[in-house]
Amino acid sequence: MASADPTLLRAIALTIAETFLGDRASAESVAYSAIEWMEANAEKVGDSPLAWVTAIAVERSLATPPNPDRPYHRAREVLAEEVAAQPVSTRVALALVGICGFDRLTASQYSRRRVEEIDALLAPFSEILEDLVILRRSEPEPTTQPGVQALPETQPAAPPTLLAPRLPASVGTALSILLVIGLVLLVTVPHGERPTFAAPRSDPGGARGAACTTDGSTDATTLQVGAGNRPARLALPPGRIQAAPLILLIGDTGQSAEDVVHTTGLEAAAATQGIAVMSLDGTAQPWNVSAVADREDDIAMAADALSRAAEDSCLDVDRTVAVGFGTGAHLAAAIACSGEDRIRGLVMVRGAYAPPSCALAHGISVLIDSDTTDAILPFDGGWGISATRDPSYEPGASAATLGAWATLNECSTEETREGDASGIEVTGRDSCRDGVAVVSRTSVGYGHDWPPEVAGPVLELTLGLK
């Protein structure tokens, strides 16, 4: 596990657990199990131990029944129900700022997110956060509680916080705080995030699937899919999940499922947001994008992979985003155009394509990520140097592909253009059918490599699916 103050890690886990459970013994058990999980999963935790301990502490707290003998236990149940409806990113931000009392800059550093992202995650909870600030400022200093440990006023390797985080002064104070939090949450908190690509789903779980608790250390499952029994890697997010959306990840020609997971880092990023990832294996043949008859049908293979994933009751495969890299992006587009109703979003990274025979039964949010210096699948279309050419189709130009998908989604003809902080030009078409959006991101100078910053928009699109 990366270097971090173990006292701080334990204090964060204990504060979160005691806030949810109101029972010191149960909180100690949850905090201990969170630290134990961290130590057993050092490779996964990497250099983000504070974000992981926060996420695991929230998950373990949600999975632990509150003590019914404690007064106001219904308020704690309300709090748990509301927080459980939020994606992991929101849970971590709420726990660090709302429960532990860190300022946004410190929460940004601990969660490895920009301050602007923390602000966006917390925006729907402004009234709750204001109430918590007042409650923390009026809170007396800890006194006679034996064994109660305060969070340090000054944290190692972090700027001073605006609000001194501390454990509740007493059980009575904690219960009073939780009653207020629970009641405010009950009447003010919307369910889920409101990302750019689509409105939040109206059913955060419900009939879509049973709630499941997965082992955070469980390895991905290998499934045999398609007529050729090819391997596909299915990874579920850790903790308590319900009706988790799915990313169907397709690498470039020749990439194995494990290789595309390593190249993109998307599986690990999705796990922090409660999203499952199924990665297809491309080592058997060049992707059969045009469904040429003399090769194995990769579109049918992908459909079989989705059907196999649908057997897991924890997943909602009807909210699947197809994410492809290189020629895998071309296959992802072909799958989305094949009448596969379970595909609700499409991301094409370094490989723009709109099949000429495409017809959509419903709107599909589309993200195209291109680089003007890509020499393998050029920004202006066609096959570049060292590309694995397929004479049955021609890759599209980025701008033309944006227009084609905007037409397929019946979007407005007006384009919006803006540059983000990293110099990437973002072009969008909205007012599309079914509330979707079609967006392109264009960078300069990165060539055909997978861009790490694309993970954020991919997860945003996935979390916004209806």
Attribute tags:
alpha/beta, ten-stranded mixed β-sheet, Rossmann fold, 466 residues, 38% helix, 2 domains, single chain, 15% strand, globular
Give the secondary structure arrangement, pairings included.
Layout: H1 6-21, H2 24-40, H3 42-45, H4 49-63, H5 73-84, H6 88-99, H7 104-111, H8 115-122, H9 126-137, H10 171-188, E1 211-214, E2 221-225, E3 230-235, E4 239-242, E5 244-250, H11 257-264, H12 266-271, E6 276-280, H13 298-310, E7 315-325, H14 327-336, E8 343-349, E9 365-371, H15 398-408, E10 416-419, E11 425-429, E12 438-443, H16 455-463
Parallel strand pairs: 5-6, 5-7, 7-8, 8-9, 9-12
Antiparallel strand pairs: 1-4, 2-3, 3-6, 10-11, 11-12
Instruction: Spell out the CATH superfamily of the largest domain.
Output: Alpha/Beta hydrolase fold, catalytic domain
CATH 2nd-level architecture of the largest domain: 3-Layer(aba) Sandwich
CATH hierarchy class name of the largest domain: Alpha Beta
Strand order of the largest sheet: 2-3-6-5-7-8-9-12-11-10
Q: Which fold name is given in CATH as the topology of the largest domain?
A: Rossmann fold
How large a portion of the residues is in β-strands, by DSSP E?
15-25%
Count of DSSP helices?
16
Total number of distinct structural domains: 2
Mean pLDDT: 78
Oligomer: single chain
Q: Could you give the distance between the termini?
A: 37 Å
Topology order in helix (H) and strand (E) letters: HHHHHHHHHHEEEEEHHEHEHEEHEEEH
- The value of Rg in angstroms is 23 Å
